[in-house]
Amino acid sequence: MKSCQSKSALFVLSCVAAVCLAGSGDAPAAARETSLTIPISGTVDGGAESVSLSGRLRIVSTVVSDVTLASPKERLTITLVGVSGVGLTSGAQYAATGEDRLVRRLSLSDHIDVRFPLYRTSGGPRPARSAAAFITLTFDLIAQSLTGATATFGSPRLSGE
């Protein structure tokens, strides 16, 4: 009797292990994550005055390979870190904050434009305006990792420019 219970327990444990190992079908087959933090600076024109900004940009790239996809994709998370600035006319203090997430086709190099809110931090509340980060990324396609990035701030471009 004890032998029969042991076999039943072993069978149940084997089934539980198989289900756990199978996981869910929506998980990527493989994912590699690399991150870089780079300096970023530039001038945003327009609005009441031009603003000189500087800080850091954190870029996290997760390359997702899946047998059902024609080519590997990358999930990008782009975060402004400690970005502040000064109005070139008034000397007022400004800050830019935010995070953006994108999914792109993996390639040797990529150029993306991302908009972030820019707001005045001195002199009372004011509405936010847009600043753009113009980012160029480079990848090692064999290692499937982000290898370099450069970025500058500027004024957002209108659609079609």
Offer a concise description of the structure.
The chain has 1 helix and 8 strands; from the N terminus they run H-E-E-E-E-E-E-E-E. With 161 residues, the protein is mainly beta.
Secondary-structure blueprint:
Blueprint: H1 2-22, E1 30-44, E2 51-65, E3 73-87, E4 93-96, E5 99-105, E6 109-120, E7 129-140, E8 145-154
Parallel strand pairs: 1-8
Antiparallel strand pairs: 1-2, 2-3, 3-4, 3-5, 4-6, 6-7, 7-8
Structure commentary:
By secondary structure, this protein is mostly beta strands. The radius of gyration is 24 Å and the shape is elongated. The relative contact order is 0.19. It has one domain (28-154). The protein has one helix and eight strands; from the N terminus they run H-E-E-E-E-E-E-E-E.
How many individual β-strands?
A: 8
The helix/strand order is: HEEEEEEEE
Question: Structural class of the secondary elements?
Answer: mainly beta
What is the overall silhouette?
elongated
Strand residue content: over 45%
Structurally, the number of domains stands at 1
Main beta sheet? 7 strands, mixed, barrel
Distance from N terminus to C terminus (CA atoms, Å) equals: 80 Å
